[in-house]
Amino acid sequence: MSLLESDTTGQGQQIVLFSANSSLQTGLLAKLIGDELKLDCSVHRELKSVPGNTSVLLIDCNGQDLENLSKYVREIQDSFESVTAALLNAEYESEQESLLEWPCVSGLFYVDTEQEQLIRGLKCLLDGDFWVPRRLLHTFLDKNRKAPSNIKRPNVKLTKREKQILKLIKDGATNADISEALSVSEHTVKSHLYNVYKKIGVRNRLEASNWVRDMDDLED
């Protein structure tokens, strides 16, 4: 089994580093991530070879233009129901940052991200949180922040479980917190989140939290 194209045989969480132009350096990075986080981290050159139960999928931006990266993200969005994707080796103040608008993309690491920051960010992503540079977070808040609205949202048919999850998200719960509170697996939580995001028309956790706050009530 090669370092660059290893199969996932362990149980539990796993990270995949997707790199269309993978090299020895890419393989060494995957090994470092696996050793630091004590989980399986493999490199794949094609998205079709990525296991469906991948926890975090890192998309290597190195040598890729926005058109290719957008194609990859679209394929991930359509093919993986509950995977958390993140951009790796992204360039500062580039159009690559706009890919964070996709619901499946929850993190971004710049090309000069230090090892310690990378590992911290991956831990957050594995816990169901976001990892976004502070500058981009401020930009997002300035763009999307608005005064509370009393306009009622259209009726959306949510299951009891989906309502429970939305309430927990509003309280700041991570996927791990929700999993423990509801006695379900994190994979199940991610599947519910994917479905509820589509139902209420939001793209991410922050928008879902705002959606719940704008509701007058969320009956069980």
Automatic annotation (TrEMBL):
Q: Which residues form the HTH luxR-type domain?
A: 151-216
Q: In Gene Ontology terms, what is a biological process of this protein?
A: regulation of DNA-templated transcription
Q: Which PANTHER family match?
A: DNA-BINDING TRANSCRIPTIONAL ACTIVATOR DEVR_DOSR (PTHR44688:SF16)
Q: Which Gene3D superfamilies match?
A: 3.40.50.2300, Winged helix-like DNA-binding domain superfamily/Winged helix DNA-binding domain (1.10.10.10)
Which InterPro entries does the entry mention? CsgD-like_REC, Sig_transdc_resp-reg_C-effctor, Tscrpt_reg_LuxR_C, WH-like_DNA-bd_sf
Q: Which domain of life is it from?
A: Bacteria
- What keywords would UniProt list here? DNA-binding, Transcription, Transcription regulation
Q: What CDD domains does the annotation carry?
A: LuxR_C_like
Task: Note whether Magnesium occurs among the keywords.
Answer: no
Recorded GO terms, molecular function? DNA binding
Is Transport a UniProt keyword of this protein?
A: no
Record the organism.
Answer: Teredinibacter turnerae (strain ATCC 39867 / T7901)
Q: What is this protein called?
A: Response regulator receiver domain protein
Which PROSITE patterns does the UniProt record give?
HTH_LUXR_1 (PS00622), HTH_LUXR_2 (PS50043)
